User: Fold these one by one.
Assistant:
Number 1:
Amino acid sequence: MDLVVAVAFAIVLNMVVVAQVRARLPGAEGRFLGRTYLQTIGLRYLLAFVLYFHLDAAGFAGASAFAATFWGDSSTYDLGGYLLSREWAGEVVVNPYLNRQHQSGIGFIHFVAVLYSLFGRNQLLVQLVNGVIGGLCVLVIYAIAARLFDRATARWAALFMAFFPQMIFWSSALYKDPAVMLAIAVCMYAVIRLQERFSLSQVILFVASSLALLSLRFYVFYMVVFATLGTFLFGQRRGAFRSLLTHSLLVLVFLAAFSFAARRETVERQRQYFDLRQVQVARADQAHLGRSAIAPEVDVSTPGGALAALPRGLVYLMFAPFPWSITGVRQALTLPETLVWYALMPAFARGLLYTLRHRFRPCLPILAFAGMLTVAYALFQGNVGTAYRQRTQITMFFFVFMGVGLVQKRLERERRAVLGRPAAVA
């Protein structure tokens, strides 16, 4: 019965999404995006069923090697959401997953609890819904790339989001990563729209998605806010009065929502995580807990130490796991993707350079956010596994720049072909 309910709900949900895509984007682009979305969902659902049936046969044993490799902290969100749903039903339960110091991921636990309250404890249903969230990330990244550049770039970005293995994997279990990526992407889309023209609907969309991000990964929320404020301070061309009015309204709405959603003591506790000494503690914990530590001898507790560690951290964040240092099954599975990632680096560099030269102002929100988060993760991440996982939040914007690079290379090749023809033919 769980299988029937999960599949039926997923079918309805995906029919609604595809219908909206076709209605909002008719013609060839609508057909392309609808087809890509269904392929996105198909790949994620295939892996979701493999995980579900394998783990179901083993009783979802968290101690098994398969569960430790592929299920990971899905057990945390499953059990935390289930306990919360029982609490909402009137039972007296102790839920340790809601009492952690920084409560990271508490929003996803509530999300799972809502689904369990409606449909019962159904892990497969959450997996399939997570696949839909991953598919929506593809659509939003397409919309961002199309708005900032062109349809060809948007197609490349959507295809990368749809078929890169890391994007597929995190959308196939009970991981919060797809929700984090979707919240970030929606925030950036709303900011880009607000750069063009003030819209109350986009303000509401930005505030709602940023507060959702606060409940999922709070430090990323603050970086989104900093990138947004920087964009509106330095990236506007409007008249002074209109610009001031737009900024004031956005800030007032955001502050009101933030004051309602975040408690003062929670904000004070979260602020401590931006202290370099706390970053060093977290980094050392990751290095000792994981088997693939990144420079455990590095000390980033001082500005000088952080600057010295930054280049090495950037290399690991951008290119790890290195093919020559792979250990374990999970890292071995990333090898084909890693090689493709390396092959796309020239396109990324070309696209980033083109963006800085020709599209800097409209792209300032994602440039600022991706730059800040890249530096933060280069300092914060202590082992290869967490660096590879958290990189997805930046990778989705890197895909846009890679698409730009590929399109610019094709245009350059076409221009050379035209210039190389005989004069009469030209």
Note: The chain has a mean pLDDT of 82.
Number 2:
Amino acid sequence: MSLARAVNPNENETSTAAETVVMVQGLSKVFKDFWGRPKAHAVNNVSFQVRRGEVFGLLGPNGSGKSTTVKLLLGLLNPTRGHIEVFGRSTRHVATKRRIGYLPEESYLYRYMDSAETLDFFGSLFNLSSDERQQRIEQLLEMVGLDKVRRRTVGEFSKGMQRRIGLAQALINDPDLVILDEPTSGLDPIGCREVKDLIVELARRGKTVILSSHLLADVEDVCDRVVIYYGGKIQAMGSLKELLSTPDRLRITMPVLERETLEKVLAMIRADLGRKLPETAAQESVVVDSPSQNLESYFLDIVKKARSSAEETSGAVSGGTVARYLRSEDSERVQAKDRILERLASSKESAPETPVPEKKGEAPAALSEDASQKLSALLPKTPLQASTEQAASGETSPASLQSEERRENLKKAGEKLSDLLGNKGNK
């Protein structure tokens, strides 16, 4: 059963144009050899748009240009020709990169960090506060099913568990655009279903997802539109309903009928087709079989029954709900805050600095004598303060005795050194 959301075919193009997240026009990338000669046309005159809240699939065989397109969208490569905009800006705009989450095909993680430390490190790269990082880490670990193995180092993880923590790090900054390269690679069927559910839920909350995968069943489950690459060019593009539907065929699903009734129905259908097709073609075009569930549904049902019988596992478990901070309203609030900060920063740069007049006759507020004494009692005493208090009280501390003994030892060592130097000078 497909998880993809229904797309309204009569959607207003004017309104969607205002919500365009990615715009690619005439994009080409040519890799050259040492002598500057064209070596490979990785991407050749590609154009497409991705709208807000859409799951967009990049499909194609190996070497068809998918990964190069992703690197161009991330600003890791410069296009040879063409134009790319992400959120209406250049791909090299620094503030734009903060709104993007990326899961590469191979997760490059620090082996000796555990899950929480890994997410904390990536969260610090986005200047998230410590409290905010901890809240997001807890939610993400629960979401990807790694909360019970959070203290295991990443180097001990299986490939599927590394994909889970990689997906969590791609979402730590609450991105508006999520680019996933083979997100279900190495995952078990449970993890695949959870990741697909997560992708659909992110799109429902206003996130935009670009998915590159060779697993066509996963793409079919979640994507609204896809492009199919071959030889660096787009060979087909459109919604899955447009690309996969067969308008000249019809499928009817119904409960089991009596044999006589079924024969009557088939006879009527074949008689009607016999007027349009040869008799042999009319007989072969009608197929009767029993529907069956797919292997994924059967597998998930078996695992669900095993969990209900209190069976335990030492690996990753089913993730919880989507992290609370990954919400469209929160993202819009962050975007509004970023826009306000950008306007303030630009106005501050353009406007001349105005000196702040000093107020005469005002002094910093001083603490009362009682509060000052209490504060002094709480603060640690310096060695000078401690020695002064001891001298005033007439006490001799062990520290002072040790210092006197040290002075005596230094005096004796100095005398011996003087004798040695004096003897050497006489010689």
Note: The two ends are 102 Å apart (CA to CA).
Number 3:
Amino acid sequence: MENRIRKFFLLPVILLALSPIILTGGLVDGEMDKPVKNRDFAIEKPNTVKAIYLTANTIASANLPNIIQQLIDSGGNAVVMDIEISGGRLSFPPKNEYLKSINEGSRLLDNLTEIVNYLHHKGIYTIARQVVFNDPYTAARKPEWRIAYKGGGLFDANWLDPSKAGVQYYNLMIMKEVAEFGFDEIQFDYIRFPASNHGVLDYHYDEAKFNRWDVINEYLKKARIIADEYDIKMGVDVFGATIWGNVDWKDVGQSIPDIAKIVDVIYPMTYPSHVSPGYYGFNNPYGAPYPFVHDSIAEFMLAANGQAEIRPYIQGFPLRIPNFGEWFVAEQIQAALDAGATGYAIWSPGNNYNASWSSMPLEPALEAAVIQE
């Protein structure tokens, strides 16, 4: 097993009718160039996207120029940034009156267009991370959007029901507003159902006629219309486990072959820390992550069938890794690139990339390039 080689208040209402499923401050002074209009300065997508993830607080901090310079000096070329503060509150004040009535946002990133322009002038490909259906901030304000139990009452306060029209419309409005800032790509996280308790949950869609993955696919088709309108690429984060079993992807509604037909990029979260030793024959994911990451990405490549890029998240945090360090990040990146990934995004929740900078120059091994030919 370990040795085998594997590969989106002014949107036309018609968007809600497309699916048959829905039935009933800042930067250091002098560091930024003169601002330009948000679409006047375009960035070509790098052939190999080498990204780090940054929280809204890090983006707003005075340390941002230092981080970006270190990224550039290390060979990196992209940033995935949160457009929400943890919990779902928008990190910027929305202009859309409908959004304001639910989520007034904050002024943390009230200069978001300026920030995107700054990154573009630095040659950085900009990716906005939007957390979709796991949203406690909105759930507290719109409890009618939450998932209900079949016997009455409401499920986990973190979750919105992905099949409810209001939930979908709200998130599409956020996407539309974010696209106007000039990002190169929008990335959806928590674009899924909860991973458990389905037998006792009463979703809004007709479960006798549709499946959870139908709901997710139809939502993504609506998002695709907005992405095309704004000429912005669209990506989705998916569980790394969705590629290995016949259960997990059905539980969360993430069908990789279907998703690949709609989006531009799939980001598998193939964190070694999230599997146990022996998982599908991978006996040492904590001490030897290369086989698990390589074979997982190879399987994603096969499932996507060339219709979407595979660009995984790399574990840049020490959870469950006794000897975490530069070697651990490097093995994952090398494995992903060798298996055909078109880049990666390193995830560190605390935005500490000391163990990651040295891996940015890595390229696919020669043998891997020969195999793919």
Note: The CA atoms of residues 33 and 355 lie 30 Å apart.
Number 4:
Amino acid sequence: MQAIIRLLFLALLFTIPGAQNAAAQESRTVTAEGVAMIQQGAVDIARDAALEDAQKRAVEQAIGILIESQTQVENYQLISDKILAQTKGYIKRYNVMNETTQGELLRVVITAEVALGKLEDDLSGIGILLVQMAKPRTMILIAEQNIGGPVNAWWWTSSGQVDISAAENSFIDVFTKKGFEFVDHEAAAQDIKVSRAYQTQDLSAGQARTLGNQAKAEVVIVGKAVSKIAGRVGGVMLSAQADISVRAVRTDTGQGIASATSHAAAVHINDQTAGIEALRKAGTQAAEELLTKILAVFAKEVGGTRSILITINGLTKDQFVKFKDVLRSQVRAIKDLHEKSFSGTSAVIQVDSKSSTQALSDELLLRNFGSFSVQVTRSTANTMELQVAPQSKP
């Protein structure tokens, strides 16, 4: 009965704004162990995997302490699961306390401070998270139109001179303060080759993906921003209003990460100055909203599972069945597997992995697939391409 009361109290806690804010500031220092198998003497790969495992366990443990997720009250498990799904933790800092090997297993013990507050306000936490996400480079493609001016979109600027807009500047300011890296605009403008089809304010996810890949960016922020005069204030000052709509797209998969919209107003004696200020305000608001959503997606992937799209070339149907069986039964990081297509000697699958693409590719290289071997020919943060070849006889 006491456990039920505590659980109901916690459920109530997360429905009260004031209590949410108090809980959001909490942090826990926990000790967690991560384990990985040493395959073919690859200790470094095992160490990275064990450390990643320890960090995930630290986050899970800290959240569990707060919400008492280990309750044995079956009838209230749904409430517990709901609270757990709504509560996200992230690592502020950690230290490796011990590393041991037991046969083919490598164990790493860490102490970690896990915060349950707002990730976007914690620079150290963001720094660790971005490293875990391989520090994705970001590019901005926002078409902007100020009062009385043309639509400015730098990716189709024929003069080669980049026109950085007020809204774009706002995004750069907000994101760089949190540690994000941006593609150099002048270098990108020289590298990007576009047709007339790309000279539009409304870039599709596919178009954004193409432009981002040309500039070697992992994330592209696309959108449009427009300002207009709304009227006069006091007979002298001009009131301008700005609207902005943006979305973030992954360039390796074309997947949309997050989106944001914003509206802002500004007053000035000059109409263009008022428009620029309104665009700047709207850009800052949209940037902060988009940043919060992107970090939430990154934290969820680091702390839980991430989707990785794998293309396999050079296998027969029988080998494909064997490959899937090995992934399901021998690769601990893979929690689920979905076959997308099989044609000729090529297949596409999507796996839900608790490891990064790099860690997963390292592990696949060490797996025994019997009559065939697997080589990683290309990988990104969320995709992997494999080539299958007959196993060489001794």
Note: The longest strand covers residues 219-233.
